Sequence to fold (418 residues):
Amino acid sequence: MPVKIPLSEIGNVINNSVKNLIFEDNSYTDNNNDQFKVKVWKTRPIRLVGGTKQNLLIEVPLKIWAEKGLGTLGVYTYQNTTFETVMYFNMQVNFNNNWTVLTKTSPMGFKWVTKPVLDFGKIQIPITSFVEESLRKQQADFCRTIDEMMLSQLNFQQYAVMAWNQFSQPFNISEDYNTWLKITPVSVNVSSLVFYGNQIEANIGIDAFSETFTGQKPPSNPVVKTIADFNSVQTLPQKFLLQTTANIPFTEATKIAENMFLGKEFDFREGKSKVKIVSVKVYGQEERIMIEATTEGTVEGVSYISGIPVYDEIRRKIVLTDTKYKLKTRNILQKTATLLFQGKIVKMIEDEYGIPTAELEDSSRKSIEETFNKEYYKGLKMQGKVYKLKPSKILLNPSGITAVIDTEAQLKLQVQGM
Fold:
């Protein structure tokens, strides 16, 4: 799952934490009676730009008011001035395995927009040296403030816990089939941060165990309060394959067969021979599906049609291949009619019988995409798309048919508006 964090969002965190009035010295007598006061404000929002070595370049535009006293023997004349400068910082960023962001900010000097000069009429006194000393001290303090603030504000453990618990909630993927998908996260893999001019990107991979339940909603996994450290990896694929299962009980397969064939009549040999299906049953036998059809009329007995279940992508059904036929009857005199009936019923089973999966596929795709495209927490927006969803394997179990469903999809996480 690609994660994109716009630098404007990190800038918002910094700007919201740094007041407009950054620094204030209201004493003339501190700093060895320097007779100097100063106030420092932000003139506009602090700006961040991505560097090339896992670093951020920070630009802080400032307006400074300064007042300096000149005189001797305790008698001073005061004059103030206002000027502007821009501070520059370099921030090294590391995403620790415990979900915290550790930064190390260092000063990169400042640039004068307008230099500070006190105007005493005939005498103009540059006070750049006084101001620069104060700004350098303030810049060093500002580095510590930024690092402390980033450590407290950019702790992603809480978001990881939220996502972990959200993923663990079973969700309905088909109301008609009353089918639930339950995903149990196992571990998390995170690639290295990649810095661009306007955003930071990374990839998160979740190793998960998925289960599908039909009927009652399964219980949720226990809620976790912390999750383990993530694993650092070099690369992760942009798409993922989720394999889950859908179980079709033989009782449901029997209902489908009854709806298709129960009461169906076969009329052949110019109306002289009629056969009617009076009961149908579907069950499994070794690796084959067995359709047991009881008939009355010209051919009275039980027909056993068996086949290997496969998924037909064009018809979007689970159908039978390698069909075999066996008839159990006491009426052995109607040999011609029996052969004609065999050909008709086998062809009908091959052409018509099938367990439809189109509705299940469509409703599952829709439900999964609705689950993917949500804002589960303010500022964390998921975007997802299902590219393929179809059964890949058909397996038999004692109680029914299990379809292994492959879902190829992509998820993205956008951090915005936190």
